[in-house]
Amino acid sequence: DQQVKQNSPSLSVQEGRISILNCDYTNSMFDYFLWYKKYPAEGPTFLISISSIKDKNEDGRFTVFLNKSAKHLSLHIVPSQPGDSAVYFCAARFGNQFYFGTGTSLTVIP
Amino acid sequence: NAGVTQTPKFRILKIGQSMTLQCAQDMNHNYMYWYRQDPGMGLKLIYYSVGAGITDKGEVPNGYNVSRSTTEDFPLRLELAAPSQTSVYFCASTPLAGQGVSDTQYFGPGTRLTVL
Questions:
Q1: What is the pLDDT of residue B94?
Q2: How far is B85 from chain A (nearest CA, A)?
Q3: Cβ contacts (< 8 Å) between B104 and chain A: which residues?
Q4: In chain B, which residues have pLDDT < 50?
Q5: Pairing state of beta strands B10-13 and B111-115?
Q6: Could you read off the pLDDT of B76-102 as tens digits, one per residue?
Q7: Under-70 pLDDT residues of chain A
Q8: DSSP 8-state symbol, B18
Q9: Over the Cα atoms of chain A, what is R_g?
Q10: Closest by Cα among B25, B12, B30, B24 to B86
Q11: CB contact under 8 A, B56 and A100
């Protein structure tokens, strides 16, 4: 049973515009949420995270929003750059375990 | 500082063969994890360890074994390989939770395993 879901397998955005990647989860006990970026033939790399006690965290061009009542989080990238083209995974933590979504492939068109 | 390293990068096994995927980290992290990623899927946790001598099962442990004799190394053993174990395997490590860090995981580059 997939506890963390990314319903959009792919997303294309023009350079300079906003990219919005979405993630839904089912377990209300998750206490920490993370976004990872993955290039082909490489391991995921950490991008940004948010604690369940917050609703927003910002780091440069990247902002993560958490809506606990809707069990939904989103990653905003502004402005989008061609180098942002990658697969993005959201993940959630419960205890010592992390649960990952299936990923969204972002393409930023120059 | 090499971070998390994994060997081999690629491997082809025949059904019924065994092998060990190696994982090492030089960041003195207590927590280590093994994941598998199947095509079009997210990462699924196989096993994890919270310190030397302590391991526990994740979501998909069947067909695998682990050991953690040192802080640095966390090998994953496949016994009697099956085609269903064809996947990309990622190892990751995390500092001890609660030490004022973001608890993010640092991933290795992955091992691509094919079982024929």
A1: 87
A2: 18
A3: 34, 46, 49
A4: 99-101
A5: parallel
A6: 999 899 999 999 999 999 876 654 445
A7: 1
A8: -
A9: 13
A10: B12
A11: no
